[in-house]
Amino acid sequence: MPTYVILMNLTEQGIKNIKGAPERIDMFTKALGAAGGRLIGFYSTMGQYDYVAIAEGPGDEAAMTQLLAIGMAGNVRTTTLKAFSKEEFVKIVKGLP
Length: 97
Known about the structure:
Blueprint: E1 3-10, H1 12-16, H2 21-34, E2 38-44, E3 51-56, H3 60-73, E4 76-83, H4 86-94
Antiparallel strand pairs: 1-3, 1-4, 2-3
């Protein structure tokens, strides 16, 4: 399954409703599972991003659906990176001409 690194920043709405964040994280985890994915890790961070999540999903379309749903809720804005494992990277590099 593809892996995604999701960088998140709280919106004004998100910080006003911060006490509901644990429940929203649980809902996000359940929605990923229902879509055939899974949350590998979720971190609250200090610095440029408020949260970092690492997730797996069945494909880019399913990931995009989940990201749009997160955005529609209005509590965070996301920047998503598709990640490749070390093994996937080695295979890609070995395939270079």
